[in-house]
Design goal:
about 120 residues; flat
């Protein structure tokens, strides 16, 4: 169960890192920095390959109806935290309540869908 929790956290962290790389590449699209943009796009693509590998590991032991909601929920939470920390995005009360509800849903789904060992 701990291994699966770590895989979900890895999925969310890698997915968020790939999105951050894509965002960085979009800022580098002016004529002077095309090589930097290509580098960020390439980095994001490689990270997405790692995300796919982690997702396949999760799907090997779990049902898609459990794995996908948890993985996407973890990614939503991680992306919001990274956005607040590195991109100065703000949390409104509604957003905070939504993230807390998502976190509660992740916990319930994880415990309910945990493979019995």
């Amino acid at each position: 169960m701990l291994f699966h929790a770590l895989l979900y956290l890895s999925y969310a962290a890698l997915n968020t890192a790939a999105m951050a790389a894509a965002k960085a590449s979009m800022r580098s699209l002016d004529a002077a920095a095309r090589l930097a943009a290509l580098g960020w796009f390439s980095t994001g693509g490689l990270i997405y390959l790692a995300v796919l590998a982690v997702l396949l590991l999760l799907l090997r032991d779990g049902a898609a109806s459990t794995v996908f909601p948890i993985a996407i929920g973890c990614t939503v939470v991680a992306t919001n935290l990274v956005g607040a920390r590195f991109y100065a995005e703000r949390f409104s009360p509604r957003k905070l309540i939504g993230l807390l509800l998502i976190t509660g849903g992740i916990a319930l789904t994880f415990v309910d869908g945990a493979p019995s060992e």
